[in-house]
Amino acid sequence: MPHQLQAGLAAYRPCNEQEERDLPLLRQALLLPDIFTRQNETAHFTASAWVVNPARDRVLMIYHNIYKSWSWTGGHADGETDLLAVALREVAEETGLQTLQPVSRELFSIEVLTVDGHEKRGRYIPSHLHLNCTYLIQADDTEPLRVKPDENSGVRWFTPQGALDACTEPWMRDRIYQKLIRKAGRI
Q: What is each CA distance from 182 to 28, 160, 172, 179, in whole angstroms?
């Protein structure tokens, strides 16, 4: 069992009922086989980044090809247990940004996310859960951006309200992104 994530989840203090209800599920999942790989087709750990500029008045979003919505960056652990490293890797891969600074090594947010069945690279992926750990990352909003065509078709900085307005996934917008915007404003 990965000690770093276990300790991070043990120390995590939920900010709302969603996190209170999801936290025990993430902690229990650490005992499951293949929980850090896609081999576990029921649920597996993922990492996301809520990327802000130094002034904290802009948020970086990608236009996600599968979800057809502007969303945060993130991805599968694929065997890696250092989820902060996963979040940083995903930001760099999905946006082209290289100058990334974790605001903290601590978890910023947690959530259990449902993923509907979909096609990826010509293969059907069944519906499953993402046991997601989110980290707050700071980046230079003047650095050049680039898309990762196999995953996204846009990368853009938004105001926090603009990010909410651009998101077409009501649950993510209302439950997750609003929570992250509130939390980032308090740091």
A: 28, 10, 14, 5
Dihedral sign computed on CA atoms, order 33, 34, 35, 36: positive
Dist. CA 144–CA 142, nearest whole Å:
6
Q: Do β-strands 123-125 and 118-120 pair in parallel, antiparallel, or remain unpaired?
A: antiparallel
The pLDDT of residue 1 is: 46
Distance of CA 108 to the CA centre of its chain: 10
111 touches 18 (CB < 8 A): yes
Cβ neighbours around 57 below 10 Å, total: 12
> Any idea of the CA torsion for 66, 37, 84, 58, to the nearest 10 degrees?
10
- Give kind and range of the element (H or E) at residue 175: none
Span 139-158, pLDDT tens digits:
999 999 999 999 999 999 99
